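Hey L., structure's done. Input below.
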Amino acid sequence: MWLLLTFSILLTSAGAQDGEKVLRDEECAPHSQPWQVALFERGRFNCGASLISPQWVVSAAHCQSRFMRMLLGEHNLRKRDGPEQLQAVSRVIPHPSHEARSHRQDVMLLKLARPARLTRQVRLVALPRRCPRAGEACVVSGWGLVSDDEPRNRGSPEPQVSLPDTLHCANISIISTDSCNKEYPGRLMNTMVCAGVEGGGTNSCEGDSGGPLVCGGVLQGIVSWGDVPCDTTTKPGVYTKVCSYLEWIRETMRRN
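Output:
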């Protein structure tokens, strides 16, 4: 299991667990992922999420906390440069069958207290019309752990791992179910999808929990879990497969 290591660890610890993020990536072009949402718990960054309608955000169920707020249009967690929209959460709806230990049904909907104002920096991400295909190119984004590939000190070959202020992006691709089953025997379900780089390298890692895996402009995955420690593993990250939850997402939004 992965322990969620968020930006808030620089300030104080947060309660969510089993998250992941992006190593050996680069800072996103500001607002190039305008659906990216930052979730906060009592003012501390906690998880990522994605804006799927003017009044709804989707994230991972294991990101649920008691005092949630969200920030849309964010890039640098340390600065406010104008396009951000701070929102209260009026409804928190994790999937009713979520199981933390197995990561089963790791999906959650959050309703904004008021509709988001859609701008160039705040936009919706499309829900999928089909499930992802092996080899499909994707982007994962978040504010979790990154590696700068520089040694920690002169005597150590290990890169420096840190938590960034700015949103980071990594180009990865969908890994076939057969390949991923070899990495995680007996742990994958058909509601999960794996993504990374064959042979290791750029991948998701601690801190990106709940954030988007976007393939061709479509939300295909929600950052869920992976191998520990993520900065040394060659295994792919595992994501909640959004196409498996379209009916639940739409019905939940309609009823609430």
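The radius of gyration is 17 Å. The CA atoms of residues 102 and 187 lie 7 Å apart.

-- N.
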